[in-house]
Amino acid sequence: MKFSSIAVSAFLACQHPQVSAFSASKKFALTRHHRHYLPQLSSSSTAPTVRRVGSADRRSILPPLFGILDEVMSDDYNLMSSSEESEVNMNDSYEIFLGDLVFSTNDPRLDIIENYERATDPAFLEWMEKKAEKSNDPEERLALKDLLEMIVDIKKRQELSKLAEERKAKEEASAEESRLVAAEAEAEAGRKLSNTDVLRKAQAINSATAASAEDRAEAASKKLSFYDQELTPEIRMSYEDTLKQLLPPYKGGETPESMVKTNYDKFDAQFVKVLNERVTVNDDKDAAALLEALAVEQSRRIGAATENLKEVLAMGEPMKMEGRIIKMAREGKVDESFLLLLEANETQARDAGAMGPAELMKRLRFRAIEEKDKQIASKEIALIRKLLRAEDAAEREKILEDAFTPREKLLVAGTAENAAKAMDGETPDQEKAMPDVPPPDFINACKAVMLNFGNLQYDDDRGDLATRIKQIASEAEVVATRIYGQGMSLREQQDRAWKEQTTSIFDLEKMELEAESRGEHAPWTNPDADDDMFLPGFDSQGKMKIGGG
Predict the structure, then answer these.
(1) How far is residue 218's CA from residue 213's CA, in Å, rounded to a whole number?
(2) What is the pLDDT of residues 21-53, one digit of tens each?
(3) What is the C-alpha to C-alpha distance for residues 493 and 139, in angstroms, rounded to an integer?
(4) pTM of this structure
């Protein structure tokens, strides 16, 4: 029997006393060495003879054997594919995940949070940045950059939230330690009190307990206002990017005035506190110039709002006033300054005892807010804003019932199929009755608001925005259950399908679309699947087999 030199050398390499399990590339490297340096074996039918090589010669011709550490540090652990194939697979995975984020019906921030580890993976962010730079489509490039900035912003928010929680935990632990030390010191002092001192202290405690309810209520109501609260390190860090954008150096033609006018919505109360701190502590001239420009812009906007309010009040009758506000809202004249001016006039009139003018200002303010909400693209956000303005639970319940109740559309959809049926004298298909705001969309909107503004505080006793949103969500769940019935979990849906032993073709279509969005195929649509994967009685085309053919 004849053996090639490669086969024999490979066998000798594997039988080496220092070799137990080499990767393929190491074995073939050793094979090539034996092919070049070992003597040729006889191809005759007699037993082959091999020239004995001395130990010194062997050390001179044998390459160093690879050990466990060499194997671990090498790239041969990838047994499935090469590095190029792995890169291609990762690109495909990134493309699929990017499509899920772009074409999702949810708020992108929600999808990013639910897939936080994948979205914030440095390799994925680097891939997105390169894809945006290489894109030839301006719209695609802008969309990718916006999505990338959104992911980076969420990542920073999560990191700041984690830092805030750690700082709060340390402060609570320090406060608890101080309390224990004070309690121990007070207990030690109490052990040294005489009987007279004990009676005197008990009398003082009794007098403090007998304080009036008004005094206790006043003491409990003493709470630091928003402007008196200290800026935390996390708040300062959260505005670093905004400061870099709005403070010098500026590009050609940019000034503090133009930056304020263009980015007016970014100047919230917290950011103004940050700027004031920079001016007070660091004597920052650039921040002072920005605050001065902000004051000028606010004065200009208040002046314009005053003229608009005079124009509204000049209409005379409340109905005409509301009509004028509707027109102004369509012209974009109803802004924050106009709403604040209405609220200020309402408060001033109420404090002066003029209830009639106060109610009129309140009515006009609510109308202006409603008209402004109509300009919001998302009906869900408009509903949440309306619920936050509601004064009690009964009013919120009425608003939720009106938003969640399905309504039949008066107009038939202008599709080609309906037009053809109308030509033939048939009744066009009516769309299924839908509510103004479906409950699932409302849930996603609540999550988005909590994600973006959940830590927003109020000066009254209503708590932060997250607490109010949770209260609204619980009330919405009651209303939705009353209209649509109790919801089912995935397990309950599976049990129902098994009990009824039937599946809707629309559910099957939904499963197919979900599988395609993940880059997969449903078992009954996969053309490369084995016959064992198909349902009994169906062929590879998904068609039912009839007869013995």
Answers:
(1) 8
(2) 444 444 444 444 444 444 444 444 444 444 444
(3) 42
(4) 0.57
